[in-house]
Specification:
Magnesium chelatase ChlI-like catalytic domain-containing protein; Ribosomal_Su5_D2-typ_SF; 4-stranded mixed sheet; about 250 residues; 9 helices; alpha/beta; Ribosomal Protein S5, domain 2; about 35% helix; Ribsml_uS5_D2-typ_fold_subgr
Length: about 250
């Protein structure tokens, strides 16, 4: 139907017929019968290409781990980019923590060299009834946004977990609760990306599923520059020259 409508547009009309079709489709995302190949053949200017790409922006998801004592339940992180005023809404998190995380993630995405979508962004963290440490959720939320906006189309973020607080420049900061999450991912045979600053804690577990990254860009490129962690053994806590009770006099 859109093929015929494009062909029958009055050529004297100043409005670009391709743009009119795309705008109409953007207004109603249920209008799916559109001939993408034909539209691409009609032109490849940057504005038109951007509008084509925006049609396929939908839902992306990844995983992370919450910390409940010694347990670390799996958390689904979903990102939806839709038409609407530019804003970011996080569902499944306390309002105060949501505001703090939202500003950190926005700055980290932009300062890491990516583009923050100028559309409505909805983040869902489920199950919603599990208490969540907001700082370690920065990285998976950012990855879900980048995946939904097709900035990292080849990154299989839906196949692994990630944890880490993000600085405003995109650097990954030290995050608590890495060891319980590492054990849970090892038992589930699921890949986990952690901050490089948590290597010492993660290395206590000899797991082939544990990787580290120092920056959002490293994690976003399918951990291409991440290093595989090897077990370095338990640290020596008690020194052999420590004073014992039988040496204390008085």
């Amino acid at each position: 139907p859109y093929h015929d409508s494009i062909s029958s547009v009055n050529p004297n009309n100043q409005t670009n017929p391709r743009e009119r079709v795309i705008r109409r489709t953007l207004q109603d995302r249920s209008l799916t019968p559109i001939n993408y190949n034909y539209l691409y053949m009609r032109g490849s200017d940057s504005c038109f290409t951007w509008m084509i790409r925006s049609l396929s922006m939908a839902i992306a998801h990844t995983y992370t781990r919450a910390i409940l004592g010694v347990d670390s339940p799996l958390i689904l992180v979903e990102a939806d980019i839709s038409n609407g005023l530019p804003q970011m809404q996080i569902v499944g998190m306390a309002d105060g923590k949501m505001r703090q995380a939202r500003e950190r993630i926005k700055s980290a995405i932009k300062n890491a060299g990516f583009k923050l979508p100028d559309r409505k962004i909805t983040i869902n963290l489920s199950p919603a009834d599990i208490p969540k440490d907001v700082s370690s959720f920065d990285l998976p939320i950012a990855l879900a946004i980048l995946k939904a906006s097709q900035q990292i189309p080849d990154a299989p973020v839906e196949d692994y977990c990630s944890m880490g607080e993000l600085a405003l420049d995109g650097k990954m900061l030290l995050s608590p609760g890495i060891l319980p999450a590492s054990i849970a991912c090892h038992e589930a045979k699921m890949k986990l990306i952690i901050p490089e600053l948590n290597q010492a804690e993660g290395a206590l577990l000899a797991s082939p599923y544990l990787f580290s990254a120092n920056h959002l860009t490293e994690a976003a490129t399918d951990a291409c520059t991440c290093c595989h962690l090897h077990n370095n053994g338990l640290p020596e806590i008690i020194s052999p020259t420590a004073i014992t009770l039988d040496q204390i006099k008085g």
